[in-house]
Amino acid sequence: MTVSFVSFYNLTIMQKQYNNVYLFCITLVATIGGLLFGYDTAVISGAEKSIEAYLIIPLGLSSLVHGATVSSALIGCIIGGAISGFISNRLGRKNSLFVAGILFFTTSLAAAYPEFLFFEKGEPTLGVLFAFNFYRIIGGIGVGMASAICPMYIGEIAPAEIRGRLVSCNQFAIIFGMLVVYFVNWGIASGQSVEWINDLGWRYMFASEAIPAGIFIILVLFIPETPRYLAMANRHEEAVSVLVKISGSVEKAEGILSEIKSTITEKTSSSVFSYGKKVIIIGILLSAFQQFVGINVALYYAPRIFESMGAAKDASMLQTIVMGLINVVFTVVAIMTVDKWGRKPLLITGSIGMAIGMFAISGLAFFDIIGISTLVFIIIYTASFMMSWGPICWVLIAEIFPNKIRGQAVAIAVAAQWIANYLISSTYPPMMEFSSAMTYGFYGTMALISALFVWKMLPETKGKSLEEMEKYWKK
What we know:
By secondary structure, this protein is mostly helical. It has 23 helices and no strands. The protein has a single domain, classed as Growth Hormone, Chain: A (Up-down Bundle), CATH 1.20.1250.
């Protein structure tokens, strides 16, 4: 990830008058939170069949319980997203990232050994199932917090001209984290028997997250608090100090701080609706559509989807890695174009590409055609998402909300996103049992509606400072 990040970074801001090294370092640390977000949410893709074999089938539970177990971390994500505004406003953006790192580290070890203290290893019981879900929910709280605070942190640090690129790097880190865990899961499962994977392999998959989580906990201690949070906390000297390091000029730093202070000292209501309901509704719909198009079905159930196409278990894991590589490539496309083309054109293009992919998969499923054509359209679908809704949704969530309500508004939008994620992911198994063609057709329809939403309701934010967006909502 570092090589790609550095080359991209040098190409995009080499000629800008910013402290390149400083911006790169603090952005890189913040994006490790995004990497953990991707790692934690995708680790289940390699373990979900083992969880089914170890707990769901022996206990005689339904596919609905299986879907809920696979998606249980999303309950924590909803909680983490909902409390992220309160936590980030009370503790600050930096300290909130530290708390999220602790949660990531804890869940990685606890989910790997849910029998810890209270149950006997190897004995599937409802108690073990509840413990596993509880530990996954704890990790989900960390994911929910990171999903809101990482882009918020980068958005509040980054200069307006390159904010889209830098916040998009968080999505690159999320996808890279997923790709890493696909390799980890494949490496753990490769050459091993199904019995070994169902007994021990899935535990190693979850425990592996402790390594990047530990690194993140240490590195986050060395990054600064964001100047906008410092200004809101009346810590103006510290804010100037950070802005000087970013901009390289005391005069420029004081000018930026003056603009920030003018927006946070104005007499406006502290209510989240103090700038009107429309901005909040747009944030909620933006988050909901990112999930209703069905992307996390492809991410969480990727090996199972490929196995249903006739691939062996090892081959299905390998195909998942190929899909992960494609995701990384097209996320880079978004990073390189988001500040040139704008947010809206990329989102509409991605929506159309996703609709084509999903409607094609729906048609193939209806006629019971399974083969390379299905894989091609899955790739078209995921590539379209990764060059558009994947990174740009997070960019917009980080930049459309005014300073005074950003923490609360981001929390609402992110909580809505995780609620939508949970609904889509947990209902996938029973929907597929009813009709696979209808399931994929539903996701395609949502992609079309998302394009209409962007066209009609979403403002363009390219090149605008966070304070300029605040003035837009006042009008």
